[in-house]
TrEMBL record:
UniProt KW keywords: Membrane, Transmembrane, Transmembrane helix
PANTHER family membership: BLL7967 PROTEIN (PTHR34219:SF3), IRON-REGULATED INNER MEMBRANE PROTEIN-RELATED (PTHR34219)
TM region positions: 12-33, 45-65, 85-105, 211-230, 274-290, 411-431, 452-473, 479-496, 503-523, 529-545
Protein's name in the database: PepSY-associated TM helix domain-containing protein
InterPro entries the record matches: PepSY-ass_TM (IPR005625)
Source organism per UniProt: Nannocystis radixulma
Amino acid sequence: MTAAVPRRSGARVQVGLVVLAGFAAGALTWLIACAWPDAPAERATIASVAFIPLWTVLALAVVAVRRRAPAGSERRRLFAVHRGLGGALALAAMVVFGSGVGAVADRALARWQVALAPVEAPPLAEQPLDAVLADLLTARPELVRGELALHPASDHQPWIQVDFFGPGREPVRLDFDARTGAPLAQGRGPLWVVRELHRRLLTNPLLGETVLGALGLALALILCTGLAARRDWLRNLVRRRRPAQPLAMRVHQWVGFFTLPAALLWAWTGALLGLTLIVVPIVGGAAYGGDRAALMRDVLASDRPPLVDTAIDRPTLQATIASGCPLVAEYLADAEVHRVLVRHPGLASGTVRVDLEGGGLLERGSFTRAADGALRDCRALPAAGPGLQAFLGAIVLHYGEWGPAWFVDLAYLLLGAGLVALSWLGGVLLARRRERDGETRSAARLRRWLNGVGLGLPLATAALLLLSRIPALARAEDLAVRVFVAVFVLALLLARTFSRAPVILHHALVVLLVAVPIIGWLVAGVQPGLVEAVLVVIGLGLLGVRRRPLAPV
Protein backbone atom coordinates (compact mmCIF):
# COMPACT_ATOMS: atom_id res chain seq x y z
CA MET A 1 0.00 0.00 0.00
CA THR A 2 2.82 2.41 0.76
CA ALA A 3 4.31 1.97 -2.71
CA ALA A 4 1.01 2.91 -4.33
CA VAL A 5 0.85 6.33 -2.69
CA PRO A 6 3.83 7.86 -4.55
CA ARG A 7 2.53 6.33 -7.78
CA ARG A 8 -0.88 7.95 -7.35
CA SER A 9 0.74 11.20 -6.30
CA GLY A 10 2.97 11.17 -9.38
CA ALA A 11 -0.08 10.55 -11.59
CA ARG A 12 -1.85 13.55 -10.06
CA VAL A 13 1.20 15.71 -10.71
CA GLN A 14 1.29 14.59 -14.35
CA VAL A 15 -2.42 15.31 -14.80
CA GLY A 16 -1.89 18.73 -13.28
CA LEU A 17 0.98 19.41 -15.66
CA VAL A 18 -1.14 18.39 -18.65
CA VAL A 19 -3.93 20.71 -17.51
CA LEU A 20 -1.38 23.51 -17.05
CA ALA A 21 -0.12 22.84 -20.57
CA GLY A 22 -3.74 23.15 -21.76
CA PHE A 23 -4.01 26.64 -20.28
CA ALA A 24 -0.73 27.60 -21.99
CA ALA A 25 -1.95 26.15 -25.29
CA GLY A 26 -5.20 28.10 -24.93
CA ALA A 27 -3.26 31.33 -24.37
CA LEU A 28 -1.11 30.69 -27.46
CA THR A 29 -4.22 29.84 -29.48
CA TRP A 30 -5.81 33.11 -28.37
CA LEU A 31 -2.72 35.01 -29.50
CA ILE A 32 -2.75 33.29 -32.89
CA ALA A 33 -6.44 34.06 -33.37
CA CYS A 34 -5.81 37.70 -32.43
CA ALA A 35 -2.55 38.43 -34.21
CA TRP A 36 -2.53 36.29 -37.36
CA PRO A 37 -2.39 38.72 -40.31
CA ASP A 38 -5.49 37.62 -42.19
CA ALA A 39 -9.28 37.68 -42.17
CA PRO A 40 -11.13 36.62 -38.98
CA ALA A 41 -12.16 33.26 -40.49
CA GLU A 42 -8.54 32.47 -41.32
CA ARG A 43 -7.32 33.51 -37.88
CA ALA A 44 -9.98 31.41 -36.19
CA THR A 45 -9.40 28.28 -38.27
CA ILE A 46 -5.60 28.40 -38.11
CA ALA A 47 -5.81 28.82 -34.33
CA SER A 48 -8.33 25.95 -34.10
CA VAL A 49 -6.11 23.56 -36.05
CA ALA A 50 -3.08 24.55 -33.95
CA PHE A 51 -4.73 24.19 -30.52
CA ILE A 52 -4.61 20.40 -30.03
CA PRO A 53 -1.05 19.90 -31.43
CA LEU A 54 0.13 22.82 -29.26
CA TRP A 55 -1.45 21.25 -26.20
CA THR A 56 0.18 17.90 -27.03
CA VAL A 57 3.66 19.35 -27.53
CA LEU A 58 3.49 21.51 -24.41
CA ALA A 59 2.20 18.60 -22.33
CA LEU A 60 5.10 16.42 -23.49
CA ALA A 61 7.55 19.22 -22.73
CA VAL A 62 6.36 19.93 -19.18
CA VAL A 63 6.20 16.23 -18.35
CA ALA A 64 9.65 15.40 -19.72
CA VAL A 65 11.77 18.48 -18.97
CA ARG A 66 13.21 19.00 -15.47
CA ARG A 67 15.95 21.31 -14.28
CA ARG A 68 19.21 19.58 -13.34
CA ALA A 69 17.79 16.18 -14.28
CA PRO A 70 20.17 13.26 -14.91
CA ALA A 71 20.81 12.15 -18.46
CA GLY A 72 18.08 9.87 -19.85
CA SER A 73 15.47 10.89 -17.29
CA GLU A 74 13.30 12.57 -19.94
CA ARG A 75 12.96 9.31 -21.84
CA ARG A 76 12.10 7.41 -18.66
CA ARG A 77 9.42 9.95 -17.72
CA LEU A 78 7.89 9.78 -21.19
CA PHE A 79 7.86 5.99 -21.01
CA ALA A 80 6.18 6.18 -17.61
CA VAL A 81 3.47 8.39 -19.10
CA HIS A 82 3.07 6.02 -22.05
CA ARG A 83 2.76 2.98 -19.80
CA GLY A 84 0.53 4.59 -17.18
CA LEU A 85 -1.80 6.51 -19.48
CA GLY A 86 -1.83 3.73 -22.05
CA GLY A 87 -2.72 1.18 -19.42
CA ALA A 88 -5.51 3.35 -18.05
CA LEU A 89 -7.01 3.98 -21.51
CA ALA A 90 -6.30 0.72 -23.37
CA LEU A 91 -9.92 -0.41 -23.07
CA ALA A 92 -11.26 3.04 -23.99
CA ALA A 93 -8.96 3.11 -27.04
CA MET A 94 -10.29 -0.27 -28.15
CA VAL A 95 -13.86 1.05 -27.93
CA VAL A 96 -13.03 4.31 -29.74
CA PHE A 97 -11.06 2.73 -32.58
CA GLY A 98 -13.34 -0.30 -32.81
CA SER A 99 -16.46 1.86 -33.04
CA GLY A 100 -14.65 3.96 -35.64
CA VAL A 101 -14.28 0.82 -37.75
CA GLY A 102 -18.00 0.25 -37.28
CA ALA A 103 -18.75 3.84 -38.35
CA VAL A 104 -16.83 3.33 -41.60
CA ALA A 105 -18.63 0.02 -42.13
CA ASP A 106 -21.98 1.76 -41.59
CA ARG A 107 -21.19 4.21 -44.38
CA ALA A 108 -19.80 1.54 -46.71
CA LEU A 109 -22.75 -0.80 -46.08
CA ALA A 110 -25.51 1.82 -46.17
CA ARG A 111 -27.19 0.18 -49.15
CA TRP A 112 -26.46 -3.36 -47.98
CA GLN A 113 -28.17 -2.88 -44.61
CA VAL A 114 -31.58 -2.50 -46.26
CA ALA A 115 -32.98 -5.62 -47.92
CA LEU A 116 -34.37 -3.92 -51.06
CA ALA A 117 -34.37 -5.00 -54.66
CA PRO A 118 -31.30 -3.61 -56.48
CA VAL A 119 -32.17 -0.38 -58.29
CA GLU A 120 -30.23 2.35 -60.02
CA ALA A 121 -30.46 5.97 -58.91
CA PRO A 122 -31.91 8.33 -61.54
CA PRO A 123 -30.05 11.54 -62.49
CA LEU A 124 -30.40 14.34 -59.96
CA ALA A 125 -32.53 16.47 -62.30
CA GLU A 126 -35.12 13.67 -62.48
CA GLN A 127 -35.43 13.09 -58.73
CA PRO A 128 -38.70 14.36 -57.14
CA LEU A 129 -37.08 16.45 -54.42
CA ASP A 130 -39.77 19.13 -54.51
CA ALA A 131 -42.58 16.57 -54.34
CA VAL A 132 -40.91 14.87 -51.38
CA LEU A 133 -40.60 18.22 -49.58
CA ALA A 134 -44.22 19.14 -50.30
CA ASP A 135 -45.59 15.79 -49.07
CA LEU A 136 -43.40 15.93 -45.97
CA LEU A 137 -44.59 19.44 -45.05
CA THR A 138 -48.18 18.35 -45.55
CA ALA A 139 -47.71 15.42 -43.19
CA ARG A 140 -45.61 17.40 -40.68
CA PRO A 141 -46.59 21.09 -40.87
CA GLU A 142 -44.38 21.94 -37.87
CA LEU A 143 -41.33 21.54 -40.13
CA VAL A 144 -42.21 24.87 -41.74
CA ARG A 145 -40.51 26.48 -38.74
CA GLY A 146 -37.70 23.97 -38.61
CA GLU A 147 -34.83 22.64 -40.66
CA LEU A 148 -34.48 19.49 -42.71
CA ALA A 149 -31.74 17.95 -44.85
CA LEU A 150 -32.40 16.12 -48.11
CA HIS A 151 -29.72 13.78 -49.49
CA PRO A 152 -30.33 13.05 -53.18
CA ALA A 153 -30.15 9.45 -54.33
CA SER A 154 -26.84 8.08 -55.56
CA ASP A 155 -25.51 4.73 -56.69
CA HIS A 156 -24.18 4.21 -53.18
CA GLN A 157 -27.59 4.93 -51.64
CA PRO A 158 -30.31 4.80 -54.32
CA TRP A 159 -33.08 6.55 -52.43
CA ILE A 160 -33.77 10.10 -51.23
CA GLN A 161 -32.90 10.43 -47.55
CA VAL A 162 -34.47 13.15 -45.38
CA ASP A 163 -33.20 13.95 -41.87
CA PHE A 164 -34.75 16.29 -39.31
CA PHE A 165 -35.48 16.53 -35.60
CA GLY A 166 -38.81 15.45 -34.19
CA PRO A 167 -40.88 17.27 -31.54
CA GLY A 168 -38.66 15.93 -28.74
CA ARG A 169 -35.42 16.81 -30.58
CA GLU A 170 -34.98 13.16 -31.48
CA PRO A 171 -33.37 12.53 -34.89
CA VAL A 172 -35.77 11.25 -37.56
CA ARG A 173 -34.77 9.69 -40.85
CA LEU A 174 -37.17 8.99 -43.72
CA ASP A 175 -36.34 7.39 -47.07
CA PHE A 176 -38.27 8.00 -50.30
CA ASP A 177 -38.27 6.39 -53.70
CA ALA A 178 -35.93 8.29 -56.02
CA ARG A 179 -38.31 8.03 -59.01
CA THR A 180 -41.82 8.31 -57.59
CA GLY A 181 -41.22 10.08 -54.28
CA ALA A 182 -43.21 7.41 -52.42
CA PRO A 183 -42.20 6.73 -48.79
CA LEU A 184 -40.03 3.64 -48.41
CA ALA A 185 -39.08 3.36 -44.75
CA GLN A 186 -38.39 5.21 -41.54
CA GLY A 187 -35.33 4.74 -39.34
CA ARG A 188 -31.64 4.03 -39.78
CA GLY A 189 -29.85 0.78 -40.51
CA PRO A 190 -28.69 -1.14 -37.40
CA LEU A 191 -25.03 -0.10 -37.65
CA TRP A 192 -26.02 3.48 -36.79
CA VAL A 193 -25.58 2.39 -33.15
CA VAL A 194 -21.84 1.79 -33.63
CA ARG A 195 -21.49 5.07 -35.53
CA GLU A 196 -23.17 7.05 -32.78
CA LEU A 197 -21.11 5.23 -30.16
CA HIS A 198 -18.03 6.56 -31.96
CA ARG A 199 -19.41 10.08 -32.34
CA ARG A 200 -21.05 10.68 -28.94
CA LEU A 201 -20.86 7.46 -26.87
CA LEU A 202 -24.65 7.00 -27.27
CA THR A 203 -25.20 9.78 -24.76
CA ASN A 204 -26.02 13.48 -24.86
CA PRO A 205 -23.85 15.02 -27.61
CA LEU A 206 -22.50 17.69 -25.27
CA LEU A 207 -21.26 15.07 -22.80
CA GLY A 208 -20.27 12.36 -25.26
CA GLU A 209 -18.37 14.59 -27.67
CA THR A 210 -16.50 16.31 -24.84
CA VAL A 211 -15.44 12.98 -23.32
CA LEU A 212 -14.32 11.75 -26.73
CA GLY A 213 -12.39 14.98 -27.30
CA ALA A 214 -10.51 14.47 -24.05
CA LEU A 215 -9.85 10.86 -25.02
CA GLY A 216 -8.49 12.04 -28.38
CA LEU A 217 -5.99 14.31 -26.65
CA ALA A 218 -4.98 11.52 -24.25
CA LEU A 219 -4.54 9.05 -27.12
CA ALA A 220 -2.33 11.57 -28.93
CA LEU A 221 -0.15 11.79 -25.81
CA ILE A 222 0.05 8.00 -25.62
CA LEU A 223 1.10 7.76 -29.27
CA CYS A 224 3.71 10.51 -29.03
CA THR A 225 5.21 9.23 -25.78
CA GLY A 226 5.37 5.72 -27.20
CA LEU A 227 7.43 7.03 -30.11
CA ALA A 228 9.60 9.37 -28.06
CA ALA A 229 10.29 6.83 -25.33
CA ARG A 230 11.89 4.30 -27.66
CA ARG A 231 15.31 5.72 -28.42
CA ASP A 232 16.39 2.84 -30.70
CA TRP A 233 12.85 1.93 -31.70
CA LEU A 234 13.12 2.27 -35.46
CA ARG A 235 16.59 0.73 -35.62
CA ASN A 236 15.42 -2.27 -33.59
CA LEU A 237 12.51 -2.74 -35.97
CA VAL A 238 14.62 -3.11 -39.10
CA ARG A 239 17.96 -4.57 -38.02
CA ARG A 240 18.48 -8.29 -38.41
CA ARG A 241 19.69 -9.12 -34.90
CA ARG A 242 17.18 -7.71 -32.46
CA PRO A 243 17.49 -7.73 -28.68
CA ALA A 244 15.47 -10.36 -26.85
CA GLN A 245 11.90 -9.04 -26.63
CA PRO A 246 8.50 -10.64 -26.16
CA LEU A 247 6.68 -11.32 -29.40
CA ALA A 248 3.83 -9.09 -28.18
CA MET A 249 6.25 -6.18 -27.80
CA ARG A 250 7.67 -6.57 -31.30
CA VAL A 251 4.20 -6.86 -32.84
CA HIS A 252 3.09 -3.82 -30.81
CA GLN A 253 6.01 -1.82 -32.21
CA TRP A 254 5.42 -2.95 -35.79
CA VAL A 255 1.71 -2.16 -35.68
CA GLY A 256 2.49 1.19 -34.08
CA PHE A 257 5.01 1.96 -36.81
CA PHE A 258 2.47 1.46 -39.61
CA THR A 259 -0.54 3.03 -37.90
CA LEU A 260 1.05 5.97 -36.07
CA PRO A 261 0.42 8.69 -38.73
CA ALA A 262 -3.25 7.75 -39.14
CA ALA A 263 -3.74 7.30 -35.40
CA LEU A 264 -2.21 10.67 -34.56
CA LEU A 265 -4.29 12.37 -37.26
CA TRP A 266 -7.50 10.77 -35.98
CA ALA A 267 -6.65 11.54 -32.36
CA TRP A 268 -5.92 15.22 -33.05
CA THR A 269 -8.90 15.78 -35.35
CA GLY A 270 -11.17 13.84 -33.00
CA ALA A 271 -10.04 16.03 -30.11
CA LEU A 272 -10.66 19.12 -32.26
CA LEU A 273 -14.19 17.97 -33.10
CA GLY A 274 -14.98 16.93 -29.53
CA LEU A 275 -13.55 19.86 -27.57
CA THR A 276 -15.67 22.54 -29.21
CA LEU A 277 -16.65 23.74 -25.74
CA ILE A 278 -13.03 24.89 -25.35
CA VAL A 279 -11.99 25.69 -28.92
CA VAL A 280 -14.97 27.78 -30.02
CA PRO A 281 -14.92 30.27 -27.10
CA ILE A 282 -11.16 30.78 -27.52
CA VAL A 283 -11.08 31.41 -31.26
CA GLY A 284 -14.50 33.06 -31.34
CA GLY A 285 -13.59 35.46 -28.58
CA ALA A 286 -10.21 36.33 -30.07
CA ALA A 287 -11.12 36.56 -33.78
CA TYR A 288 -14.79 37.61 -33.59
CA GLY A 289 -15.16 39.33 -30.25
CA GLY A 290 -17.49 36.60 -29.03
CA ASP A 291 -19.86 36.73 -32.03
CA ARG A 292 -20.40 32.99 -32.39
CA ALA A 293 -23.05 33.39 -35.11
CA ALA A 294 -20.55 35.19 -37.33
CA LEU A 295 -17.93 32.51 -36.62
CA MET A 296 -20.33 29.72 -37.62
CA ARG A 297 -21.42 31.64 -40.71
CA ASP A 298 -17.90 32.36 -41.98
CA VAL A 299 -16.38 28.98 -41.18
CA LEU A 300 -19.21 26.46 -41.57
CA ALA A 301 -21.61 28.42 -43.83
CA SER A 302 -24.21 28.05 -41.07
CA ASP A 303 -26.46 31.07 -41.52
CA ARG A 304 -29.49 31.00 -39.21
CA PRO A 305 -31.55 34.17 -39.62
CA PRO A 306 -34.33 34.74 -37.08
CA LEU A 307 -37.78 33.37 -37.82
CA VAL A 308 -40.03 35.64 -39.88
CA ASP A 309 -43.46 34.03 -39.72
CA THR A 310 -44.75 35.40 -43.03
CA ALA A 311 -45.90 32.80 -45.54
CA ILE A 312 -44.51 33.00 -49.09
CA ASP A 313 -44.11 30.58 -51.97
CA ARG A 314 -41.82 27.67 -51.22
CA PRO A 315 -38.50 27.66 -53.05
CA THR A 316 -38.12 25.20 -55.91
CA LEU A 317 -35.27 22.91 -54.91
CA GLN A 318 -34.39 21.73 -58.40
CA ALA A 319 -34.23 25.32 -59.67
CA THR A 320 -32.09 26.33 -56.69
CA ILE A 321 -29.67 23.47 -57.34
CA ALA A 322 -29.44 24.35 -61.02
CA SER A 323 -28.77 28.04 -60.28
CA GLY A 324 -25.34 27.36 -58.75
CA CYS A 325 -22.93 30.20 -58.02
CA PRO A 326 -19.74 31.60 -59.64
CA LEU A 327 -17.11 30.04 -57.35
CA VAL A 328 -18.73 26.61 -57.51
CA ALA A 329 -18.94 26.81 -61.30
CA GLU A 330 -15.28 27.81 -61.52
CA TYR A 331 -13.66 25.44 -59.03
CA LEU A 332 -16.14 22.56 -58.58
CA ALA A 333 -17.64 21.98 -61.99
CA ASP A 334 -17.62 18.18 -61.54
CA ALA A 335 -18.74 18.09 -57.90
CA GLU A 336 -22.02 16.39 -57.03
CA VAL A 337 -24.76 17.59 -54.72
CA HIS A 338 -24.32 15.90 -51.36
CA ARG A 339 -27.06 17.60 -49.34
CA VAL A 340 -29.78 20.22 -49.63
CA LEU A 341 -30.39 21.95 -46.30
CA VAL A 342 -33.80 23.67 -46.16
CA ARG A 343 -34.61 26.06 -43.34
CA HIS A 344 -38.07 27.59 -42.72
CA PRO A 345 -39.53 26.32 -46.05
CA GLY A 346 -42.39 28.52 -47.13
CA LEU A 347 -41.59 31.43 -44.77
CA ALA A 348 -39.95 34.77 -45.49
CA SER A 349 -36.89 33.83 -43.38
CA GLY A 350 -36.37 30.60 -45.33
CA THR A 351 -33.04 29.62 -46.88
CA VAL A 352 -31.80 26.76 -49.03
CA ARG A 353 -28.17 25.67 -48.78
CA VAL A 354 -26.72 23.28 -51.32
CA ASP A 355 -23.60 21.34 -50.26
CA LEU A 356 -21.42 19.86 -52.98
CA GLU A 357 -18.64 17.27 -52.81
CA GLY A 358 -16.07 16.06 -55.30
CA GLY A 359 -13.61 13.22 -55.17
CA GLY A 360 -10.60 15.19 -53.91
CA LEU A 361 -9.77 16.11 -50.35
CA LEU A 362 -10.51 19.82 -50.86
CA GLU A 363 -13.32 19.47 -53.40
CA ARG A 364 -16.02 20.87 -51.16
CA GLY A 365 -18.29 23.84 -51.63
CA SER A 366 -21.71 25.27 -50.92
CA PHE A 367 -24.04 28.10 -51.81
CA THR A 368 -27.05 29.52 -50.01
CA ARG A 369 -30.08 31.29 -51.46
CA ALA A 370 -32.75 33.18 -49.57
CA ALA A 371 -36.49 32.63 -49.91
CA ASP A 372 -36.63 35.24 -52.67
CA GLY A 373 -33.86 33.50 -54.63
CA ALA A 374 -31.12 36.00 -53.76
CA LEU A 375 -27.63 34.55 -53.43
CA ARG A 376 -26.55 34.95 -49.80
CA ASP A 377 -23.38 32.88 -49.75
CA CYS A 378 -21.09 31.19 -52.26
CA ARG A 379 -17.90 29.34 -51.40
CA ALA A 380 -15.54 26.73 -52.80
CA LEU A 381 -12.85 25.26 -50.59
CA PRO A 382 -10.13 25.31 -53.31
CA ALA A 383 -10.50 29.10 -53.40
CA ALA A 384 -10.33 29.52 -49.61
CA GLY A 385 -7.30 30.44 -47.54
CA PRO A 386 -4.93 27.96 -45.88
CA GLY A 387 -6.71 28.17 -42.53
CA LEU A 388 -10.12 27.14 -43.85
CA GLN A 389 -8.54 24.52 -46.08
CA ALA A 390 -6.61 22.99 -43.17
CA PHE A 391 -9.61 23.08 -40.84
CA LEU A 392 -12.16 21.58 -43.22
CA GLY A 393 -9.59 19.23 -44.76
CA ALA A 394 -8.85 17.85 -41.29
CA ILE A 395 -12.56 17.13 -40.78
CA VAL A 396 -12.80 15.42 -44.17
CA LEU A 397 -9.72 13.33 -43.36
CA HIS A 398 -11.17 12.28 -40.01
CA TYR A 399 -14.42 11.05 -41.54
CA GLY A 400 -12.79 9.57 -44.64
CA GLU A 401 -15.18 11.27 -47.06
CA TRP A 402 -12.69 11.79 -49.89
CA GLY A 403 -11.03 9.92 -52.74
CA PRO A 404 -12.27 6.66 -54.27
CA ALA A 405 -14.81 5.35 -51.78
CA TRP A 406 -13.72 1.71 -51.97
CA PHE A 407 -10.05 2.57 -51.40
CA VAL A 408 -10.65 5.01 -48.53
CA ASP A 409 -13.11 2.69 -46.79
CA LEU A 410 -10.74 -0.27 -47.09
CA ALA A 411 -7.76 1.75 -45.84
CA TYR A 412 -9.70 3.16 -42.89
CA LEU A 413 -11.07 -0.26 -41.97
CA LEU A 414 -7.62 -1.86 -42.00
CA LEU A 415 -5.97 1.00 -40.11
CA GLY A 416 -8.77 1.10 -37.55
CA ALA A 417 -8.51 -2.65 -36.99
CA GLY A 418 -4.75 -2.24 -36.60
CA LEU A 419 -5.28 0.40 -33.91
CA VAL A 420 -7.64 -1.91 -32.02
CA ALA A 421 -4.90 -4.55 -32.14
CA LEU A 422 -2.34 -1.96 -31.01
CA SER A 423 -4.47 -1.08 -27.97
CA TRP A 424 -5.09 -4.73 -27.15
CA LEU A 425 -1.39 -5.58 -27.38
CA GLY A 426 -0.59 -2.66 -25.10
CA GLY A 427 -3.04 -4.06 -22.56
CA VAL A 428 -1.48 -7.52 -22.88
CA LEU A 429 1.99 -6.08 -22.21
CA LEU A 430 0.71 -4.18 -19.19
CA ALA A 431 -0.96 -7.32 -17.82
CA ARG A 432 2.30 -9.23 -18.23
CA ARG A 433 4.21 -6.49 -16.45
CA ARG A 434 1.75 -6.53 -13.55
CA GLU A 435 2.09 -10.28 -13.32
CA ARG A 436 5.87 -10.02 -13.27
CA ASP A 437 5.62 -7.43 -10.48
CA GLY A 438 3.51 -9.78 -8.38
CA GLU A 439 0.13 -8.11 -9.08
CA THR A 440 -1.49 -11.34 -10.26
CA ARG A 441 -5.06 -10.39 -9.41
CA SER A 442 -4.75 -7.05 -11.22
CA ALA A 443 -3.21 -8.79 -14.25
CA ALA A 444 -6.00 -11.38 -14.37
CA ARG A 445 -8.63 -8.68 -14.05
CA LEU A 446 -7.10 -6.69 -16.93
CA ARG A 447 -6.98 -9.79 -19.14
CA ARG A 448 -10.66 -10.46 -18.48
CA TRP A 449 -11.56 -6.91 -19.45
CA LEU A 450 -9.41 -7.15 -22.60
CA ASN A 451 -11.21 -10.34 -23.60
CA GLY A 452 -14.60 -8.84 -22.83
CA VAL A 453 -14.10 -5.66 -24.83
CA GLY A 454 -12.00 -7.25 -27.57
CA LEU A 455 -14.65 -9.89 -28.29
CA GLY A 456 -17.76 -8.08 -27.03
CA LEU A 457 -17.59 -5.12 -29.42
CA PRO A 458 -17.25 -7.20 -32.63
CA LEU A 459 -19.84 -9.64 -31.29
CA ALA A 460 -22.35 -6.83 -30.70
CA THR A 461 -21.57 -5.41 -34.16
CA ALA A 462 -22.13 -8.83 -35.74
CA ALA A 463 -25.51 -8.98 -33.98
CA LEU A 464 -26.42 -5.69 -35.69
CA LEU A 465 -25.34 -7.12 -39.03
CA LEU A 466 -27.70 -10.02 -38.41
CA LEU A 467 -30.55 -7.60 -37.65
CA SER A 468 -29.98 -5.91 -41.01
CA ARG A 469 -30.85 -9.16 -42.80
CA ILE A 470 -34.34 -9.28 -41.25
CA PRO A 471 -36.53 -6.73 -43.11
CA ALA A 472 -38.98 -6.26 -40.24
CA LEU A 473 -36.14 -5.36 -37.84
CA ALA A 474 -33.66 -3.59 -40.13
CA ARG A 475 -35.07 -0.11 -39.27
CA ALA A 476 -36.01 -0.76 -35.64
CA GLU A 477 -33.67 1.80 -34.06
CA ASP A 478 -34.66 1.17 -30.43
CA LEU A 479 -34.29 -2.58 -30.86
CA ALA A 480 -30.85 -2.12 -32.41
CA VAL A 481 -29.69 -0.16 -29.36
CA ARG A 482 -31.06 -2.78 -26.97
CA VAL A 483 -29.50 -5.67 -28.89
CA PHE A 484 -26.11 -3.95 -29.09
CA VAL A 485 -26.00 -3.03 -25.40
CA ALA A 486 -27.32 -6.44 -24.29
CA VAL A 487 -24.77 -8.41 -26.32
CA PHE A 488 -21.88 -6.14 -25.31
CA VAL A 489 -22.76 -6.21 -21.61
CA LEU A 490 -23.32 -9.99 -21.70
CA ALA A 491 -19.88 -10.46 -23.24
CA LEU A 492 -18.30 -8.33 -20.51
CA LEU A 493 -20.11 -10.27 -17.77
CA LEU A 494 -19.14 -13.63 -19.24
CA ALA A 495 -15.50 -12.56 -19.56
CA ARG A 496 -15.46 -11.56 -15.89
CA THR A 497 -17.25 -14.70 -14.68
CA PHE A 498 -16.12 -17.77 -16.66
CA SER A 499 -12.58 -18.83 -17.37
CA ARG A 500 -13.62 -20.33 -20.72
CA ALA A 501 -15.56 -17.21 -21.76
CA PRO A 502 -13.02 -16.18 -24.47
CA VAL A 503 -13.52 -19.52 -26.26
CA ILE A 504 -17.32 -19.25 -25.96
CA LEU A 505 -17.39 -15.66 -27.23
CA HIS A 506 -14.95 -16.49 -30.02
CA HIS A 507 -17.15 -19.33 -31.28
CA ALA A 508 -20.29 -17.18 -30.93
CA LEU A 509 -18.69 -14.52 -33.13
CA VAL A 510 -17.88 -17.12 -35.80
CA VAL A 511 -21.45 -18.45 -35.71
CA LEU A 512 -22.98 -14.96 -36.03
CA LEU A 513 -20.77 -13.98 -38.97
CA VAL A 514 -21.57 -17.17 -40.88
CA ALA A 515 -25.27 -16.86 -40.00
CA VAL A 516 -25.62 -13.40 -41.60
CA PRO A 517 -25.71 -14.58 -45.26
CA ILE A 518 -27.78 -17.65 -44.35
CA ILE A 519 -30.46 -15.63 -42.51
CA GLY A 520 -30.51 -13.05 -45.29
CA TRP A 521 -31.07 -15.73 -47.89
CA LEU A 522 -33.74 -17.62 -45.95
CA VAL A 523 -35.66 -14.67 -44.46
CA ALA A 524 -35.27 -11.84 -46.98
CA GLY A 525 -34.34 -13.74 -50.14
CA VAL A 526 -31.09 -11.75 -50.44
CA GLN A 527 -28.67 -13.44 -52.80
CA PRO A 528 -25.23 -13.70 -51.16
CA GLY A 529 -22.74 -11.21 -52.60
CA LEU A 530 -19.34 -9.73 -51.89
CA VAL A 531 -20.19 -8.60 -48.34
CA GLU A 532 -21.52 -12.01 -47.40
CA ALA A 533 -18.42 -13.67 -48.85
CA VAL A 534 -16.17 -11.38 -46.80
CA LEU A 535 -18.11 -12.18 -43.61
CA VAL A 536 -17.82 -15.92 -44.23
CA VAL A 537 -14.09 -15.61 -44.92
CA ILE A 538 -13.60 -13.64 -41.69
CA GLY A 539 -15.63 -16.21 -39.76
CA LEU A 540 -13.68 -19.14 -41.17
CA GLY A 541 -10.42 -17.27 -40.55
CA LEU A 542 -11.39 -16.74 -36.91
CA LEU A 543 -12.31 -20.40 -36.65
CA GLY A 544 -8.81 -21.36 -37.76
CA VAL A 545 -7.02 -19.05 -35.36
CA ARG A 546 -5.18 -20.99 -32.70
CA ARG A 547 -4.94 -19.44 -29.26
CA ARG A 548 -1.20 -19.20 -28.72
CA PRO A 549 0.26 -17.19 -25.85
CA LEU A 550 2.46 -14.33 -26.95
CA ALA A 551 5.67 -15.38 -25.25
CA PRO A 552 9.30 -14.27 -25.60
CA VAL A 553 11.27 -15.91 -28.39
